[in-house]
Amino acid sequence: MEQFILFLISLVANLFSAFAGGGAGLLQLPVLIFLGLPFGVALATHKIASVALGVGATLRHLREGGLQRRFVVFILATGIPGVLLGASVILQVPGRYAEIALGVLTLG
């Protein structure tokens, strides 16, 4: 049953994310935590799924000529270090504090 709930939430979240350009994690990450995954595991699971979905979307936009390479390079050059730093920092934060921070950031 848990997999079915996660399937439905992910389907809806990614459908709206495709329309809006992001935001699926606002639903998926809390659902993974609600289903019992520890914060770090839920975050890693969500990020792997996000990367896989992002690669697919990127390839589609590349084929259709909808990307400006100059901006892609800039975003990657600044985004990758930010992601690596954020992943390193979150691993040092106790799970309960990370969950509280997620709630505050989601609501705020």
Helices and strands, with pairings:
Layout: H1 2-20, H2 25-34, H3 39-64, H4 69-90, H5 95-107
Helix pairs in contact: 1-2, 2-3
Structure characterization notes:
The structure is a single chain. The chain is mainly α. It has one domain. Helices cover 83% and strands 0% of the residues. It has 5 helices and no strands. Helix 1 runs antiparallel to helix 2 and helix 2 packs antiparallel against helix 3. The mean pLDDT is 85.
What's the gist of this structure?
With 108 residues, the protein is mainly α. It has 5 helices and no strands.
Task: Spell out the key features of this protein.
108 residues; mainly alpha; 83% helix
Count structural domains. 1
The fraction of residues assigned to DSSP E strands is: under 5%
Order of helices and strands: HHHHH
Give me the secondary-structure category. Answer: mainly alpha
Q: Would you count the extended β strands for me? A: 0
Distance between the termini: 31 Å
Largest sheet: none
Helix content: over 70%
Assembly state: single chain
